[in-house]
Structure formats: structure tokens, C-alpha cells
């Protein structure tokens, strides 16, 4: 978390608090005239400097470039315990290296010459104008070099103009700025004091999660991460972009209430609905909402006619939200500034979950525009969308399209597609930029985002990262210790029940089901067939036109013994919790995928595909890329030759659909918007299939045949 507060562009405003001081405030220094008194007190009270000596501030003394850098870095909120990129200057003393590196990395100064900062040289007023204009993101017009002053050259003209227009400086006289004069320590104190009081700049910090899917085994470490981030910035907002429901035995057993206890304890500020919140209808969702100690936001979900949800829904934007209620949007006050938060849920929910006919998912673009209009009417110009529509999902709605189509959204905290956005994604289609973030899945990460707004509510700076909850040190110990309260609740209230569920029998196998690594990565196996049959059956309930299912061999991690199949065995076979995806692929793309699948055969390859709904032959003695000799697709109970010009609906997991294992053709389809992500977890799909077919008698059926091996 060390680099969380480093902005991509120059830092824009002092993060220290400005002390309320008056002209009569007494200084401890003997050399501070009245005109400098407030500024000096500001610097000393905020520990930016302790003065030149115990009794003097050095007001009329010149300040060196390194001392000016240290004071500016502190005023901007940079700290010497952060790690900044080495700027490569060889003349900077150790005490000032962190500050010089921070300013250089932020684009505030580039030094005097290559490899030289000029650390012990006095900084001139002209040089200071350049630093200050960059540091405080002043409006600099580099095409205007003329100034009211006769002693300012073209190099510093735009920056001096920016200082004058912002009120940071009036110059030394009507005609002289003193551009070449050495900057005095008292003058520098005034500049920093005035810079800290510039109007309009506002830093919003968000802590965000999404698609946690009942993965709460690491809840105690997650709590530690959130606590640490809150300690860094107590004004942070903690938000979730949906899909707390479904995914582990904790949900099967506790219907979201286990997750909710920890969300309440952590103090979430808002959440929107994911599609999986509707998996069991609306009754468990209503119980989840009612017990929440935070409000929900959902601009496009209308449930006024639903018996379970109608009393919880509020078709309004409010600055007085009530916990356990749902609003189109809410207004939060953060450090005196109003921030609007609204929510969106994918319209795919109608077909990939079970909301019922009386829950309506309205057009996300139209409802987003209405929400923004409502915020604007309340004077809110800093707007955050909690979005469960996917980053670039092909289901008909996604975050990138939302950012391009709707003006006025400053930040989109996304979910649904489980994307791991290590850095924020910026869309600059409209007149204002939109920052998009998403924190992967399963409580693996907690996301952080800092955005700086100008006085008009436009994002001018941003910095974001993902904090790995289960990060380990070199000795395999966890970086983040467990929160003891959360650990105790989990161990005593929830885990014992899960241990019992793991022992439950979910089916019976007449023989060993082959999931051995050497086999599932080189040839057809009975377990591979069973898994893909289950995947295809589930996909058909969502899209009846789905005819093929493909499972990468690397996603099958163990065999299943003959006899009773326990839930624990299933979880051992499929430990990753990969979710379902449905791709629209041409026959040519399917054939290319099969070529990639067998490209290393007979060597082991995690990309080797187990399959349902098709059978194909290949010759491993031929050159890679030219091995597949025939492909047939089961359409309506009859196998027909693959038509390379035809489009087929193909089920797989989201890892593979996004190009995992180097499936470039799948990645292309994903980027083209030809992949839907209904999101049902593989082990759940498998156990659901076993429930319908409890006595398993799977076999190898000739779906995949190496003709060379058969010779």
C-alpha cells in the first residue's frame, strides 16, 4: 500500500490540514515579520519545517533547491516512508532524496541538468513559479509568454502568469517579478500557505470490492487491509459493486448473511446488486437488504411490484439514506464535499438469474443519465457509479460503453466480468474523463482509488491499485495479519457448519473418474466428459442455442474415486471457482482453437481442451497448426461437419474465454463483445448436474482422437 497516494500527474493540493491562525498569533521565531506570520505558523504546525534554527526561521535567507523540494513534498502530502522511483540525480543528499524523487516522478521538476538536481543551489523565483504551477495544477497557457513584468523571460512567462492569476503571487512590484532573484524562505512559506488554500481541489478516496461470491475464508485478513487503508485516509468510502451471493458453501448454507455480518462490521457505505443476488429469487435478497447497516443503490432495477422488495425500494436520489433501503442514488458528504453514488445491474440478470417477472431491469444508459441529472439538480458534480455490468462484457451492457455514452460519470467502480484492473482504466471520450476500476474476484483483492477533482468537479488526477489480501512474505507467512474479532466470528459461527457440508454426498461414481494431470492435459477422459456435459447442460438453460462446451485440462486438478462423491472431492477437482461464459464463435475460430488445444500433443498442455457437443480427430505427427483432420458438431442429436462460416454458441469458463492459455481467438471474441458472462461457478454447475444425474457412469466416447496414436 506504499504507493497508494502517488498521482500519475503532478500532485494538485496540499493534503495536510490548514491551521486556523490569525494575525495576532505569536511566533516562536525572532525573525518573522507580521506579513509572514500566518504562513510560518502553517508550515511549523503542519510539520513542513521546523525553521532554520531553534530561534530563527531564516525568513530573509535564500532557500536551497533541496530544502524547497522537501518542504513542497511535505505540503503536497508525500511522505518519506513511501518508495518513489529514483530520479537519477547524483547530487542530492540522503535527507532529501525521497522528496526530490517524489517531485520528479510527479512531473513537478526535472532538475537542472541530466543527473544533476542542483541540490545546494538557491532556487530562483522564476524556477519556483514552474514548480508551483505544476504542483498545484494551475491553469498554464504555454502559448502566452508575455507577462506584466519586464524581468520574466519566455521560459518562465506562462508559469508566472499562472501564479499571478491564481493569487499565489503579485510579483515584487508592478513591473518586477524578481524572476532571477534568489527565493527567500519567507517567500516560499507564503507560496506554500497560499497553495494549500487554493479553492476547488478535492481528493476522494475509494476502497472498493466486487464479485466476492461468498469467499470469506480470508475475511479476517481483508478486515486488516481495510482498516489499514482507512487509517491512511479516514474519509475513504467503502463500496461494493455486487455479486456477494453465490459461489461457496458459505452462501449455500447462510444465504449471504455470513458475508453481511462482516460487511456490516467493516462499515460499507454503499452496494449495488449483482445478477447473482437474484439467484434464489428475491426473498433471500430482501433479508440481506433489511439486515444491512448500509444503503443500496440501484438506478435501473425496478421492483415496486415485487412482494419481497417493494417496501425497500425508493425511486429517488437522497442525501439522507436509511440503512437497509434501496435508492436510485445517494449523496454522501466527504470532507465537506458532496459525492453522488448510483448503481446499475446488468440486464442479462433476467436470463442468467431468477429475479422473477415482476423485477424489471431498465435501460442502463437512460437510467444513468437520469441519475446524473438528479445529482446535478442537487448541486452534486462528483459522481460515482457502482456498476455490475462488466468491464467490456459482451452481454449488451458494459462499463466502457457506459463511460463513452454517458457524460458526467467521474468514476465507475465495476463488477460482473471479474476483471483484474491493476491500474485504473481512463476513458476520455467526452468533455470530462471517466476513471474505471475493478478488483477481480473472490476477495482476492481490495481496490483503492484516489481521484482529485478541480473546482468544477472534473477529475484532474488519479491513482489506484489492488491490494492482495492473501499476499505472502518470502517465508510464506501472510503479509496481513488476521483481525482477531473477525477470525473468532468465522471460526465459531460459520466454519463448523461448512465442514459438515463438505462431507455430504452429492453423487455416486461406478468407477474412478480420471482427472489425472497427465491425462486431462493430453487426451479425452471420462471426468473431462462429465464436466463439459454439466457445463453444456447449464449453458443451454441460459442460451438454448449453445451446442458446444470446452474445458481447459489445466482447470481439472484431481480424480474422483469410485463410490460416493463428496462435496469436498468436487471442490478438490475444481478449486478455482471458474465461472461460465458463452461465446459466439465462427466454425473457423473453433477449428483454430482445437488446433491450439492439440499443438503440443502428445506432451502435456494445460490448454488441452476436454469437450462436449463435438468430436474431432487430429494427427499429432503433423506440424502444429495443421493437425486437426475432422470436426463434427452435435446439432439436435445428429453430428454434422463443422461449418467454418457458421456461428456457434460455445460454453467455456471465463478464464479461457478471455484468452487464458493463449487462446487468442477467444480473446478476440471477448474484445469484440461476443462473450456473455452469466457467471455460474464450475463446481456449482457440476453438483447441480450430479443432483439431476446422481449415479455417474461416465466413459471415454471417442470425442477426441489422435489418429497417429491409433495407428
What does it look like?
It is a single chain. The chain is an alpha/beta fold. Helices cover 30% and strands 19% of the residues. It is built from 22 helices and 27 strands. Strands 4, 6, 7, 8, 10, 11, 12 and 13 form an eight-stranded mixed beta sheet that branches. A five-stranded mixed beta sheet has the order 3-2-1-14-15, covered by helices on one side. A five-stranded mixed beta sheet has the order 20-17-24-19-25. The radius of gyration is 30 Å and the shape is elongated. The relative contact order is 0.09.
Structural class: alpha/beta
Distance between the termini: 59 Å
Radius of gyration, CA atoms, in whole angstroms:
30 Å
Shape category: elongated
The number of distinct helices, counting runs of at least 4 residues, comes to: 22
User: Which residue ranges are poorly predicted, with pLDDT under 50 across at least 5 consecutive positions?
Assistant: 1-26
Strand content: 15-25%
Annotation, overall tally of beta strands: 27
Defining key terms:
single chain, 711 residues, five-stranded mixed sheet, 22 helices, 27 strands, elongated, disordered N terminus
Amino acid at each position: 500500500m506504499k504507493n497508494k497516494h502517488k498521482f500519475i500527474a503532478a500532485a494538485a493540493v496540499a493534503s495536510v490540514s490548514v491551521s486556523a491562525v490569525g494575525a495576532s498569533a505569536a511566533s516562536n521565531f525572532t525573525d518573522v515579520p507580521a506579513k509572514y506570520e500566518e504562513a510560518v505558523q502553517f508550515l511549523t504546525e503542519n510539520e513542513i519545517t521546523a525553521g532554520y534554527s531553534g530561534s530563527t526561521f531564516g525568513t530573509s535567507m535564500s532557500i536551497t533547491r533541496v530544502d524547497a523540494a522537501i518542504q513542497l513534498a511535505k505540503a503536497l502530502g508525500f511522505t518519506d516512508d513511501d518508495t518513489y522511483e529514483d530520479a537519477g540525480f547524483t547530487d542530492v543528499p540522503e535527507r532529501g532524496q525521497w522528496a526530490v524523487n517524489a517531485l520528479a516522478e510527479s512531473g513537478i521538476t526535472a532538475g537542472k541538468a541530466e543527473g544533476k538536481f542542483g541540490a545546494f543551489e538557491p532556487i530562483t523565483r522564476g524556477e519556483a513559479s514552474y514548480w508551483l504551477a505544476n504542483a498545484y495544477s494551475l491553469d498554464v497557457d504555454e502559448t502566452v509568454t508575455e507577462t506584466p513584468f519586464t524581468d520574466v523571460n519566455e521560459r518562465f512567462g506562462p508559469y508566472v502568469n499562472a501564479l499571478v492569476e491564481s493569487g499565489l503571487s503579485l510579483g515584487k512590484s508592478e513591473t518586477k517579478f524578481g524572476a532571477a532573484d534568489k527565493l527567500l524562505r519567507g517567500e516560499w512559506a507564503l507560496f506554500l500557505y497560499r497553495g494549500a488554500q487554493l479553492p476547488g481541489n478535492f481528493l476522494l478516496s475509494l476502497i472498493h470490492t466486487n464479485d466476492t461470491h461468498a469467499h470469506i475464508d480470508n475475511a479476517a485478513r481483508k478486515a486488516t487491509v481495510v482498516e489499514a487503508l482507512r487509517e491512511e485516509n479516514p474519509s475513504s468510502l467503502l463500496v461494493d459493486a455486487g455479486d456477494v451471493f453465490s459461489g461457496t458453501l458459505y452462501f449455500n448454507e447462510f444465504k449471504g448473511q455470513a458475508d453481511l455480518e462482516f460487511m456490516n462490521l467493516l462499515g460499507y457505505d454503499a452496494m449495488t446488486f449483482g445478477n447473482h443476488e437474484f439467484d434464489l429469487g428475491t426473498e433471500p435478497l430482501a433479508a440481506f437488504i433489511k439486515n444491512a447497516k448500509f444503503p443500496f443503490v440501484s438506478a435501473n432495477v425496478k421492483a415496486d411490484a415485487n412482494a419481497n422488495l417493494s417496501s425497500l425500494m425508493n425511486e429517488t436520489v437522497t442525501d439522507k439514506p436509511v440503512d437497509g433501503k434501496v435508492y436510485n442514488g445517494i449523496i454522501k458528504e466527504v470532507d465537506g464535499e458532496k459525492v453522488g453514488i448510483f448503481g446499475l445491474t446488468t440486464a442479462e440478470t433476467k436470463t442468467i438469474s431468477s429475479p422473477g417477472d415482476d423485477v424489471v431491469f431498465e435501460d442502463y444508459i437512460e437510467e444513468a443519465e437520469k441519475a446524473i441529472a438528479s445529482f446535478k439538480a442537487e448541486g452534486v458534480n462528483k459522481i460515482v457509479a457502482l456498476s455490475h455490468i462488466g468491464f467490456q462484457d459482451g452481454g449488451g451492457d458494459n462499463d466502457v460503453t457506459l463511460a463513452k455514452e454517458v457524460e458526467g460519470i467521474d468514476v465507475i467502480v465495476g463488477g460482473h466480468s471479474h476483471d483484474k484492473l491493476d491500474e485504473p482504466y481512463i476513458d476520455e471520450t467526452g468533455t470530462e474523463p471517466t476513471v474505471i476500476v475493478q478488483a477481480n474476484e473472490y476477495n482476492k483483492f481490495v481496490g483503492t482509488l484516489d481521484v482529485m477533482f478541480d473546482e468544477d468537479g472534473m477529475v484532474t488526477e488519479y491513482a489506484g491499485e489492488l491490494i492482495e489480501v492473501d499476499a505472502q512474505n518470502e517465508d510464506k507467512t501472510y503479509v496481513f495479519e488476521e483481525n482477531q474479532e473477525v477470525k473468532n466470528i468465522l471460526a465459531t459461527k460459520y466454519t463448523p457448519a461448512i465442514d459438515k457440508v463438505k462431507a455430504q454426498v452429492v453423487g455416486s461414481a461406478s468407477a474412478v473418474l480420471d482427472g489425472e494431470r497427465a491425462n486431462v492435459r493430453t487426451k479425452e477422459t471420462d471426468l473431462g466428459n462429465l464436466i463439459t456435459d454439466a457445463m453444456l447442460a447449464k449453458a443451454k438453460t441460459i442460451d438454448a442455442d449453445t451446442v458446444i462446451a470446452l474445458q481447459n485440462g489445466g482447470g481439472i486438478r484431481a480424480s474422483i474415486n469410485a463410490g460416493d462423491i463428496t462435496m469436498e472431492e468436487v471442490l478438490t477437482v475444481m478449486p478455482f471457482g471458474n465461472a461460465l461464459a458463452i461465446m459466439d464463435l465462427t466454425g473457423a475460430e473453433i477449428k483454430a482453437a482445437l488446433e491450439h488445444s492439440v499443438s503440443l500433443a502428445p506432451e502435456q498442455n494445460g490448454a488441452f481442451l476436454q469437450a462436449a457437443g463435438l468430436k474431432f480427430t487430429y494427427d499429432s505427427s503433423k506440424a502444429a497448426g495443421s493437425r486437426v483432420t475432422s470436426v463434427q458438431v452435435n446439432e439436435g442429436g445428429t453430428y454434422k461437419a463443422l461449418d467454418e462460416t457458421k456461428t456457434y454458441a460455445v460454453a467455456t469458463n471465463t478464464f479461457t474465454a478471455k484468452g487464458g492459455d493463449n487462446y487468442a481467438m477467444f480473446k478476440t471474441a471477448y474484445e469484440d463483445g461476443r462473450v456473455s458472462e452469466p457467471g455460474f461457478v464450475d463446481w456449482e454447475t457440476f453438483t447441480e448436474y450430479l443432483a439431476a444425474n446422481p449415479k455417474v457412469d461416465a466413459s471415454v466416447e471417442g470425442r477426441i482422437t489422435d489418429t497417429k496414436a491409433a495407428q
